[in-house]
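FAQ

Q: What does a record look like?
A: Structure on top, sequence underneath. For example:
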């Protein structure tokens, strides 16, 4: 591959690979909107939530400015932006990707225990895990973890290593908030595990044990928002283990015990479990 000598060269090469790109200023932020586009006075771009087209030729509107069109990337209107650029970013959702942004060593360790392997890219403080598929882009889904996909951008830091895998349910579940007022029908104490088809994709029995232990630890260590933590841990366990038949009532009892040790009632545990099952369509 030809050596890339500038941010514009990098952007043009990425655009040729189908990645919509944009320049970033110092501090990893997008270029500021021009005067006509400030506070979306122009009505925004067609692919933003705000209605109406934007005829501005500048790289305004952050992620929505990302493009694969070399005529735009090399236009006089973008020339100043490229001269001022500190880095190149791309719009993952526009390329059909989702980036799990792991911002520190603890977040990376969590991902290695809980997420399916995929392409990884080293960052200054952690890693980007990149999956095929798109979703919403919530920040702070857990300590040190952001999701960048639709309506977001990620800094280009190289190809990384590994083969890109499909976006898993366990990542989608991170963006799901517990229903605030949904109460399922009464259930007997001791909620049963979902029935699986017996096709277990896990690498070893220890994988399930690590997942349960990690969920127990996260519940026990949660400093606040215990209701949400319990629900999200139930959702993560079900996403990873609920369909293959290896999750047992004994595992569920361990999770309930950890939650009740933090003051959760049995009824709330049952409701959180039922809501997580419903959210995943089990």
């Amino acid at each position: 591959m030809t050596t890339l000598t500038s941010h514009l060269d990098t952007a043009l090469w990425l655009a040729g690979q189908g990645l919509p790109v944009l320049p970033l200023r110092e501090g990893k932020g997008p270029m500021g909107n021009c005067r006509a586009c400030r506070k979306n006075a122009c009505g925004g771009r067609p692919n933003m939530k705000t209605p109406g087209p934007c005829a501005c030729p500048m790289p305004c509107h952050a992620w929505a400015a990302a493009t694969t069109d070399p005529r735009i990337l090399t236009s006089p209107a973008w020339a100043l932006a490229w001269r001022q650029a500190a880095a190149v970013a791309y719009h993952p959702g526009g390329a059909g990707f989702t980036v799990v942004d792991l911002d520190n060593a603890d977040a990376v360790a969590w991902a290695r225990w809980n997420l399916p392997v995929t392409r990884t890219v080293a960052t200054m403080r952690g890693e980007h895990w990149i999956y095929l598929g798109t979703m919403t882009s919530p920040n702070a889904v857990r300590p040190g973890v952001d999701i960048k996909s639709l309506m977001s951008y990620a800094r280009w830091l190289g190809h990384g290593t590994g083969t890109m895998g499909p976006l898993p349910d366990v990542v989608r579940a991170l963006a799901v908030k517990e229903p605030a007022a949904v109460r399922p029908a009464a259930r007997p104490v001791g909620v049963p595990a979902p029935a699986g088809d017996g096709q277990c994709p896990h690498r070893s029995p220890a994988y399930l044990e690590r997942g349960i232990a990690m969920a127990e630890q996260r519940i026990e260590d949660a400093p606040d928002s215990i209701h949400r933590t319990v629900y999200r841990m139930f959702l993560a366990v079900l996403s990873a283990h609920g369909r293959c038949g290896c999750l047992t009532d004994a595992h569920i009892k361990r999770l309930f015990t950890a939650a009740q040790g933090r003051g959760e009632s049995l009824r709330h545990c049952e409701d959180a479990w039922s809501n997580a099952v419903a959210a995943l369509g089990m």
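Q: Is there anything notable about this one?
A: Residues 77 and 92 are 24 Å apart (CA to CA).
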